[in-house]
Batch of 3 targets.
Target 1
Amino acid sequence: MKFLFTPALIAPIAMLAACAAQNEPEPESAVEGEEGAVAAPESGDAGGDGLILDTDAPSGTVLIASGGSAASFDPECVITETGIAGIENPATLGDFAEAFPADTALAFQPVYMVDFGALCALSGGEDAICAIFESYDVDAYDGNIEVMAMGVYADQCRTAEGVGPGTSIADAINAYGDPRFGFSYENEAREYVSFAEAPDAYSFRAESETGGAMQVQGNRPSGRFGGDYAGVEGDSYFETATALPDARIWEIWITPLP
């Protein structure tokens, strides 16, 4: 997913998710270079922290307009051990929302995956940067919800070593050393990949078109995966150091260290 991640564009691009639920509406404010992009919503119910809750968003999603000044927002989207795009690990969803330019539209998804919800800035209707929270008993947006990690999915975002979503596992190995892919049935069989020399704050997930098309016999991760588990044995946890040929990173989480 390629996109131009600048403060001037992030709010209009984010609203594409809402537009998908409508019948080709006329854009309120087109942005040069971004076909079909529209401005953040001007209507809705006022929510906490001075945000606007858009009740016309697609089912299961609430669009929230940031009221932040974003003085530290970094359009180059550098990933560090303590944050993304100049947004340092936020304590709450309200802190995350306030870190973006004013009127940036964010998508609140209380069921993002099993056990987790997310508040995400979008690009082209896809997740770009998200604040991740534990979703137990959460069904409505509240700025006081605690953030446990930040996730990055936009392939413009990169660490100082040049690694980010879309980076091939081969290039990630050059930056961070030998990989280790693994999944456990006790953790929804989600595959994660670690690297011998990567910062402890980073958690990676990989994908592979080869893996998606494989008819793997026996145990395999659920969803996207990049490791080759052919012949790997185990009980509930399975691990391999071998990547599928076209494996690449699609998600990085940044988790505050103790």
Target 2
Amino acid sequence: MNVLGLVFSILLILSYGFYACWDKQTASSRLRNSYTSSQKVNRKILNSFESEVYAGLNEVKSAPKLKEHEEIFEPDEIPVEKSKKPGLNRVCSRINLWPLIQEGRENHPALYELAAKMIRTFYPALNTGEKRFEYHFLDVLIASSKAAMKEDHPFSLEKIALVKPDLQRVYYKMLRGTKHWDLVEGIGYPPLQDYIKAEPAQDKICVCHAHPDMLTVLFNPKIGWKLYAEIHQQPPPALTNQLIEKVCSEMHQISVDAELLKLLELGHPDHKEHKKAFIAEDEKGNVSLRKNIYIDG
């Protein structure tokens, strides 16, 4: 019996030793994969940043020399490029909550309704079950922002603490968003920080640089995607009230709210951004990284 007990004890010790080595190896492999993926997405963001800086350089590029027997495409013969995934909603296309925070919703009813519509459109999955949730949440957000502005530290919408703690977790989820989303299919929701801001100005929403999701809030999904396609034709058409009304008519909407049009900036303005968000993903390592980088110029 003593020998048998000794054998079982040795086997048990060896089993624990093997498990400890295997667990350590697994953890090391997981850490290595995570580090490698992080380096890859950092490199992608750096490449995107350098491309952005290079594209902004005021340099006259000489026309490339054609090789012998190289074909020259006429404008009508240029192969059509496949549609690209829309970029992030630009800062100039975000809803500015500053007037609501400073002057109240009574003085800006159209802006208030638009902000509530955005919450209702983007975040039905985060509705706590309360009736008119979007208005309740927006009122809390405005009140919390007004209180935060009275403090000494720099104000930031992303860092404010809501006056109702039960909504703080909901707000955090809104700011973060989900990794993938599709408003049409009802999958996930976008990060709120890409669609709102609080800056001391009476900014209008730039339609030219708006993401289709922002255009969906302004109009509806069909009009939003149709208008986005119209705006990004080459060469782009003149972005006017008439173009918007034409697209709405084609999508069977009789008229456009005149108060909504007052909130929009039309044309093709050139907004120079000093801070831009870059996002990169590594699907293999399941790593996604977002960085806000300041660009001189």
Target 3
Amino acid sequence: MYAGIVMSTTHTISNNPGITPYTVLGRKPTVDTSHSQKNLGLILLNRGARYLRNDTFERLQKYGWTEIISIESCRPSYDLEELSQRYPGLRFLVFQDQPKSIGEQINIAMRESLSTHAMVLWSYIQPLPMSSRFIQEIWESRAVCTAPVIRNTRGEVLPTICIPASFNNHMKPVYLTPSGENTCSLYPFDYLGIYNKKEFQALGGFALDIPNPYWQKMDFGLRSFLWGNAISLHQGFRVQAEEDFQPEDTTPDDDYLTFYLRNIAVEFDKDHGHVPLHAFWEFYRNSGSGIIQAVKQFQKARAWVKHHSFRFTGEARRLVELWEEEGFNGF
């Protein structure tokens, strides 16, 4: 499954139809992976125009990451090997084909990461200094992801806290600006955050069969809560955007239907979750699909929930009620 380890190439994935083939360029850093030694790596995503690599890596080096994994397009720059030698702990994750989703890129980078925790950033995001107290709280937290307070190019704090609210007997996301004490958010805005690798992998990471970025994040976040974990937002974690964010496409599509069946349609019974058969008719009426396609999608999602049934600790309806009553910290 894996190619041999050489100086410039660590792993090449092949013969796995579920994962986009990739190569890792650069030497593995020396990282203490014992449970007693917590460490923080960086996963760097790139969107849009090619960033100024030297300036970016020079700026990021001062934070003292245990490693940096930079995710590249399927048309990598010629200077990757030179850069990986210049900056200790820097490796490049190069996909041989176009990745299926951002979530897939993060899943693979987390798999390759040697750190216990990893911060996911875009190349145009500047992390601000973090206090030792905040870092200690990260080590003590079980949250699968701790999201930052984000300022835009004008210095304004963005409304990045997503909370669930009820609207006509349906769950509707509402967005708030962070203020006061630390709180929870339904999902990490634009994937930004510090991820706990152990908890992330225990949750299965981002769903590869939900490639739409918005519904992929919603699925990851809601699954985290329904399975007994959380997405927290911490006032001590702040980042500065150097470019404007693009609006998210929240249009319901096939990925929304999968998200709905695996999360919203789940009912919790004593010690497990399940999708009842009677949920099919509401799903079918709102799916816009033919009866045969709807049955297949319903059965597939229902089987997925059954496979993970004992991971559920609650249901979405109760989550909304608890959040509206007093905020939410877990079932």
